[in-house]
Design brief:
Number of helices: 10
Strand order of the largest sheet: 13-14-15-16-19-18-17-20-21
Structural class: alpha+beta
CATH architecture of the largest domain: Alpha-Beta Complex
Number of domains: 2
Distance between the termini: 87 Å
CATH class of the largest domain: Alpha Beta
């Protein structure tokens, strides 16, 4: 089977990247390329052939999934990979996963190249391998290649590109049906790839060329001249020593860690009631964007208040940052508005839950009359304004599912109120 027809990239769907589904492989080598990408530390061999000049590299073989960047971060933990060479042999895969992997590689100042790692017979614990340059880097793999601060595509290697497409509809793209949300997902990811390409110092010609190849055509192989022009290859030797980094003049700032766990089961598809430790909460998750670029997501939740006249609103957001050394822009407050009514939540926590991911938290009472407007007027939306010290994020959240789920919350609140009154009555009677 020609490698040109091996399935390529699968675009992110409903904010999660669809996994690559290639044809059934006929050999172990082919199977490893369509299995999820795995990373291995490799040393050249046999020792008698290279002596004290045996090269080392990171082998990255397989399909890119939404979890690949996390897998790479786990692999890199505890290892000194800065400035090393990473060698790709991949059919591509998830758009979101590929861009996240690329940014992780760039942070480690690595060299990227294309090759196939061939293990040699093991001699005890000294596992060695050779590097074959007759390999391919397909679809989103070409964009991951851009992540290297130094990049080398050997003449024997092949780079293949084509359009991104919805993963569950690429087999018969013309006959498939599409919604406005589908089009939004594709356009958003094209924008992400364009921004990433420029960020990594590549030429936008790479994206333009890929977008010309529809999913019903074989992937297009880039010529040597195109590879050079698109800045996919910038050096003549994948193992040339990286220049010593200049000392940083910026002090490392470690943000305060805050442990905030979002309630499980929260959906982006609409408002729904979830059970958190026996308490019902009306909640919805929403992507957070800034000028169209997705920077994270936030949860907005309503729970029972201390009286029938109030609900407790909670806001939790998770924002991605490309610079772990940059301090978080702390929230001053979060303003919720429904029609002419509004309420302010006090920001009580800010910090980093993981490298390059920061969390803001705010909570406070909200008048029940304000919340009921979402039920009484089906066209009302909730405006969430996260007010920071440097910038504000203002997003309108729709009311899909709100009217259907709200009665469950109020019923639960009524039961809790009766229980509180009963406990208070028992305490008062006991005191008498």
């Amino acid at each position: 089977m020609s490698r040109l027809v091996v399935a390529g990239a699968a675009v992110a769907c409903a904010s999660l990247a669809a996994l690559l589904n290639g044809p059934v492989a006929s050999t172990d080598a082919q199977s490893s390329r369509v299995s999820p990408m795995h990373f291995e530390f490799r040393r050249e061999g046999p020792p008698e052939a290279c002596g004290d000049r045996c090269r080392t590299w990171i082998s990255a073989s397989g399909a890119i999934s939404a979890d690949t960047a996390r897998d790479f971060e786990n692999f890199a933990r505890g290892r000194e990979l800065k400035g090393m060479t990473i060698v790709f042999d991949s059919v591509g895969g998830s758009v979101v996963g590929a861009l996240a992997l690329g940014r992780s590689i760039r942070r480690l100042d690595m060299t990227t190249t294309v090759g196939k790692t061939v293990p040699l017979p093991s001699r005890g614990k000294d596992a060695r391998a050779t590097l074959s340059l007759d390999a391919s880097c397909e679809s989103m793999c070409a964009f991951v290649l851009l992540a290297g601060t130094r990049r080398y595509v050997p003449p024997e290697a092949t780079l293949l590109v084509h359009q991104i497409w919805l993963g569950d509809r690429r087999d018969d793209a013309i006959a498939a049906s599409y919604t406005a949300e589908d089009l939004m997902i594709v356009q958003r990811d094209i924008g992400r790839i364009a921004q990433y390409t420029v960020e990594m110092g590549g030429a936008i010609d790479l994206l333009e060329t890929a977008l010309r190849i529809p999913p019903w055509e074989p992937m297009r192989a880039l010529s040597y001249d195109e590879i050079q022009r698109m800045r996919l290859s910038t050096i003549e030797n994948a193992f040339e020593r990286a220049p010593a980094p200049e000392p940083s003049v910026t002090a490392s700032i470690q943000p305060t860690t805050v442990a905030v766990r979002a309630a499980g089961g929260i959906s982006e598809r609409g408002w729904s009631v979830i059970d958190q430790s026996g308490q019902l909460i009306l909640a919805r998750r929403h992507p957070m964007t800034a000028e169209g670029e997705e920077i994270g997501s936030f949860d907005i939740m309503f729970a029972c208040g201390d009286s029938p006249d109030t609900f407790i609103a909670t806001y939790i957001d998770r924002r991605r940052s490309r610079d772990v050394n940059r301090t978080v822009d702390p929230l001053k407050e979060v303003r919720l508005s429904i029609g002419q009514r509004s309420a302010t939540l006090k920001a009580s926590a800010v910090g980093a839950t993981a490298a390059y991911q920061h969390t803001n938290f705010a909570t406070g009472p909200v008048p029940a009359a304000m919340v009921r407007v979402m039920v009484e007027n089906g066209s009302r939306t909730l405006t969430v304004a996260a007010i920071g010290t440097e910038a504000d994020t203002i997003i309108r959240v729709g009311n899909t599912g709100f009217a259907q789920s709200f009665p469950q919350l109020t019923t639960n609140c009524t039961k809790q109120g009766r229980a509180r009154n009963l406990r208070a009555s028992v305490i008062e009677t006991g005191q008498q």
